[in-house]
Amino acid sequence: MSNWIVYGLRRGILTTRYPQRSGTMPAGYRGAVAALNAPLEEQRAGVAACLSGALQEGSPAARVDALRCYQCGECARRAPTAFAISPAFEVARLRQRAAPFGRSVHVRHVDAGSDGSEEQELQAIFNPFYDANRLGIFLTATPRHADILIVTGVVTHPMVEPLRRAYDAMPHPKSVIALGTSACSGGISSDSPDVAGPVDAIVPVDVYIPGTPPTPLSILHGLAVALGRAVPAGEAMP
Amino acid sequence: MLRYVVSGEGGLEEYPGAVLGPVPSLAAAIPAALWHECEARDRFGVVFENLPESRPLVEVRPAEELRRADSPEVSTILYGPVRSGIVESARWIVETAGEDFISVYPSMFFKRRELERRFTGVPLDLAAHVAEHASGATASSHAAAFSKAAEAALRLEVPERARATRAVLVEFERIHQHLDALAKLADDGSLSVGSSQTFAAKERVHRLLAEATGNRFARGVITVGGTRFDVMARLADVCATQLDRLEAEVLAVLDALFSTQSLLDRLIGTGKLARELVIAYGAVGPVARGSGVSSDARLHDGYLYTPMGGEESLESHGDAVSRALVRRAEIVRSFRSIRNALDGAFAGEYLAPARLEDGCGIARVESPQGELLYFVRFDGGIARVALRSASYANWPLFVPSLPGNIFTDFSFIEHSFGLSQAEVDR
Hints:
The structure holds two protein chains of two kinds. Helices cover 24% and strands 19% of the residues of chain A. By secondary structure, chain A is an alpha/beta fold. Chain A folds into two domains: 32-86, Alpha-Beta Plaits (2-Layer Sandwich), CATH 3.30.70; 93-226, Rossmann fold (3-Layer(aba) Sandwich). Chain A starts with a helix and ends in a 12-residue tail after the last helix. Chain B has three domains: 1-59, no CATH class; 61-110, no CATH class; 115-425, Cytochrome-c3 Hydrogenase, chain B (Orthogonal Bundle). Chain B contains 16 helices and twelve strands. Chain B has helices at 34-44, 63-66, 115-118, 127-134, 139-154, 160-188, 192-213, 231-257, 261-267, 275-281, 285-289, 297-300, 320-343, 390-394, 410-417, 422-425, and strands at residues 5-6, 12-13, 23-24, 48-49, 75-79, 91-96, 101-107, 222-223, 226-227, 359-367, 370-378, 382-388. Chain B has a three-stranded antiparallel β-sheet with strand order 5-6-7. In chain B, a hairpin with a 3-residue loop joins β11 (370-378) and β12. Classes of the chains: A alpha/beta, B alpha+beta. Chains A and B meet through α1, β6, α4 and α5 of A and α3, α4, α7 and α8 of B.
């Protein structure tokens, strides 16, 4: 017979203190792409290698659309003078301002057409290393009890209606998070005839968390942004 | 044997030895052909004679059109596509008159993105990224299977160092996906600490991969001809300091899970699959091995794998606990394979330059869910990619595993299969 209480106690406290204290990803983690000042011809190889059209040539540096970036690292590998990739994980962007939530929120998840990894990383924020419950974040099975809707994946046509219904079933105030690069921008599936669009083409999105998939720390940051407890990356979006 | 050729515009195409008219269905005699024929019918308009399933597979239809029972006592329950918890979208149409399953019909493909078409025209050195989108959680298996198919078509020799790297990454993937399935089973059994600790063990694998490869699912590493950068050195460094600790943690949680009688009781006899059924449906991976059917692509196909033990993890009872035991045995073996591949200390190049030429290739990789197949055709570039995922091969067996079980067994059976929706819908 297993004694799970002893098992858990033996392992001690695994949980990060993030976001009260800072968190880190390993040095080689491909988090966010930054454009460096470089002549156009040096940018070209990197821009051409971007499958999701996240990069545009520009002066003095290329422009990077973080919501389209899959963190594959091809640009930095092919054009190292024009692009650099850092282990940054606080990448969530906010549209306007955070909804007025109190200390605790309930979260509902809808998969609109993901690749299956975003769900696993979302699940991970409840494991002992991240323990989202300590931040007052709980999962709920019904949209009726949900304050925040987290949507993974680009929205396929058959998922438009289920997504809309989940959103409509939520009480006010409510907030929507697009989780993962495909959910944020449509990414590589943008032109597929089976795809209706990114999440914000169907329901209004408040917080965008790009990533392939976003790491649990990125998700915690995005949730903290949605709750007005953390600073988003970059300026507020229009 | 060639039976028919599907045209790119839909319908059938003329070809020597192929029929043009209605195609006699194979599915009545060979259940393994059922989903393939249904998909060819739904997507390409191919007409089959005597196809045993008239309901659409790929198209999402209202439930009343799919109902089978006439009796008013039987109620139809729509389960999905949005379900409780953090799960991928799929719908089950369940007909029931109480606790028992009378009829269950899977309505999937809600998530279809037409990913196979997305490969067309993508430069060869970027195309493995697209394969990783088919199933992000098993990205290494998809990138490896796609690359292997392309390498077969281009007759490209992959350096040993890259093959060893692929082996290590696919085995790590097997460990984290098996832990994911076991953690979900523990959660189904209301074993909350057991589930948390199993997810914690999974987290440790992702942290190791993030440090060694730059991504928690090792995405963006495997490509046609080898790997995108020299990951082997970094993997060896990280494993030198962390692999022992990781293995000890994973084995400890497995020991604890498999000595929790309350969980095992829930799994024993649940979702039983007879060996004959598994063979008829052509199931693969732990679903097949749990019923004693040998199916490990690693046994017959040494390409990815540098020397590794020839034994296969088989169980004979065909129930949820058998499939869980197969996963445990495979995790143990995966650690051994990783050590073998690392100990080989293969020097040399990590990438062989690929040159485009016309032709076809097909290849398989033993993904965590089972045998994953990729087909690639080059015609002045990538012209066509098709994939048959392990989840696609195994889902048709889910319904035959239900009779004799009750509603509350549903999630146990589902998680004992441990399948992915994204790679089915693609």
